[in-house]
From TrEMBL:
GO terms for molecular function: hydrolase activity; metal ion binding. The keyword Hydrolase applies. The lineage of its organism: Bacteria, Pseudomonadati, Bacteroidota, Cytophagia, Cytophagales. Its cofactor is Zn(2+). SUPFAM superfamilies: Metallo-hydrolase/oxidoreductase. This is MBL fold metallo-hydrolase.
Length: 214
């Protein structure tokens, strides 16, 4: 069974997820923790639940999703896993972090790359890797259709979509990613978004003003 804990970190109100299986093996996805109290909140939950963190995953590498990368890597001695096409996005963060008020940002380097169609496991939980560019050039999502769970980063939100005006973004590409790749999955799939509350594919297929198909 998939267990998911959401934290809301940093001024961008970014969703950081801890995903773990029944055996307590866990991944931290998109760590946005920057302040010490945010790091402490994440560590306290992991300790309280007795989790063993084995990996760090970035759905994409905009600043709000990677602020805690170095902290997680150092604290838990785990690999950073992402899509290779977002490496320039990750590398660019150091050049502008201070301008956004994150003068103490610590850069990180990936250890493994995922690509479209890969099967990726968090403990006993198996995910399919979806390549979903448009918001970021190397954006990925993790789909478990059996349990109707999708970890989606900033591709699709409750009633909205990821912004496409940042470097590497493209509106038409994002809409194609959503409609042609993501919307083919079951309506009951719950989308765990990079910002805001969860939603379902059914809701977004029917009423999202940017990408609805019904």
């Amino acid at each position: 069974m998939i267990h998911i804990k959401r934290f809301v970190f940093n001024p961008f109100m970014e969703n950081t997820y801890v995903v773990y299986d029944d055996n307590k093996e866990a991944a931290i996805i998109d760590p946005g923790c920057y302040e010490g109290y945010e790091e402490n909140e994440l560590v306290a939950f992991i300790k309280q639940e007795g989790l063993k963190v084995t990996q760090l995953i970035n759905t994409h590498c905009h600043i709000d999703h990677v602020l805690g990368n170095a902290f997680v890597k150092e604290t838990y001695q785990v690999p950073l896993i992402m899509h290779e096409q977002d490496l320039p996005v990750l590398e660019a963060v150091s050049s502008y972090a201070a301008g956004y008020g994150f003068a103490n940002y610590k850069p990180s380097r990936p250890d493994k790359f995922l690509k479209e169609g890969d099967k990726h496991s968090i403990g006993e939980i198996d995910f399919e890797v979806l390549f979903l560019p448009g918001h970021a050039p190397g954006h990925i999502g993790l789909m478990n259709e059996k349990e109707r769970v999708f970890i989606g980063g900033d591709v699709l939100f409750d009633g909205s979509i990821g912004r496409t005006d940042l470097p590497g973004g493209d509106f038409d590409t994002l809409i194609h990613s959503i409609q042609q790749k993501l919307f083919k999955y079951h309506d009951d799939v719950v989308v765990y978004c990079g910002h805001g509350p969860e939603t379902t594919l059914a809701k977004e297929k029917n009423s999202n003003p940017f990408c609805a198909i019904h």
